[in-house]
From TrEMBL:
Belongs to the glutathione peroxidase family. Keywords: Oxidoreductase, Peroxidase, Signal. One of its GO terms (biological process) is cellular response to oxidative stress. GO terms for molecular function: peroxidase activity. The keyword Kinase does not apply. The active site is at residue 60. Residues 1-20 form the signal peptide. InterPro entries: Glutathione_peroxidase (IPR000889), GPX_AS (IPR029759), Thioredoxin-like_sf (IPR036249), Thioredoxin_domain (IPR013766). The lineage of its organism: Bacteria, Pseudomonadati, Pseudomonadota, Gammaproteobacteria, Vibrionales. CDD domains: GSH_Peroxidase. Residues 12-180 form the Thioredoxin domain. Pfam families: GSHPx. This is Glutathione peroxidase.
Length: 183
C-alpha cells in the first residue's frame, strides 16, 4: 500500500512537471485581475487557446475599441479564443487607480473578457507577458490598444497597431486562420 502511494505521488509530481514544461513561456506565471485580489494562472486559463493580447488605457482616443474587443470575444470565445486586456499607464492615458480603469472597462463598456491588473508593458519594467511578447515579436507597444495575436502554441503570429480595428477584415482573417491551423 505504501509503495502504491509513493508511486501515485511520484506520478502526480511528474505529471505536474510535464504540465509546467509544456506551458509556453508567454503563459508562465500568474497575473492579478483588474481591481481585484484574485489572480489568474495564465497557463491554466489560456493554454491551447488563440489569444488577442491588448494593452489598454481608459482615457485614450482608442478606448472605444473596448466595444469591438468585447464583440470579438463574444463571437469567438467558444472556439478556443480569448481577448486579454492589460491596462497600462505607459502612455499617460490610464491615470487614476485601478478602480477608475475597472469602471471604464466593466461599467462603461460592459467588458467580460479577462482584464489583468494595471502594469507596465514597455521597457525593462514590462510585465512578464509583455516582456515575452516583445522578445518574440521584436515590437513593443507603440501606443495604447496595440494588439498581439498569440497562437495556441504560445507564439506571437501577428501584431496590429492601435489604428487597426479589432473587427477589421485583416485581423479577423488572421484569427480565423489560427482556428483552421489547429484542426
Amino acid at each position: 500500500m505504501k509503495k502504491m502511494m509513493m508511486m501515485g505521488i511520484g506520478w502526480l509530481c511528474l505529471s505536474n512537471l510535464a504540465f509546467a514544461a509544456s506551458c509556453p513561456d508567454i503563459l508562465k506565471g500568474s497575473q492579478r485581475k483588474l481591481n481585484s485580489t484574485d489572480t489568474v494562472n495564465l497557463c491554466e486559463a489560456f493554454q491551447g487557446k488563440t489569444l488577442l493580447v491588448v494593452n489598454t488605457a481608459s482615457q485614450c482616443g482608442y478606448t472605444s475599441q473596448f466595444d469591438q474587443l468585447e464583440t470579438l470575444y463574444q463571437q469567438y470565445k467558444d472556439q478556443g479564443f480569448a481577448v486579454v486586456g492589460f491596462p497600462s499607464n505607459d502612455f499617460n492615458q490610464d491615470r487614476g487607480g485601478e478602480e477608475a480603469s475597472a469602471k471604464v472597462c466593466y461599467l462603461d463598456y460592459g467588458v467580460t473578457f479577462p482584464m489583468m491588473a494595471r502594469s507596465n508593458v514597455r521597457g525593462s519594467g514590462a510585465n512578464p507577458v509583455f516582456a515575452e511578447i516583445t522578445r518574440q515579436a521584436g515590437v513593443e507597444p507603440r501606443w495604447n490598444f496595440y494588439k498581439y495575436l498569440i497562437n495556441p502554441n504560445g507564439d506571437v503570429v501577428a501584431t496590429f497597431p492601435s489604428s487597426v480595428s479589432p473587427l477589421s477584415p485583416n485581423l479577423l482573417s488572421v484569427i480565423k486562420k489560427q482556428f483552421s491551423d489547429v484542426l
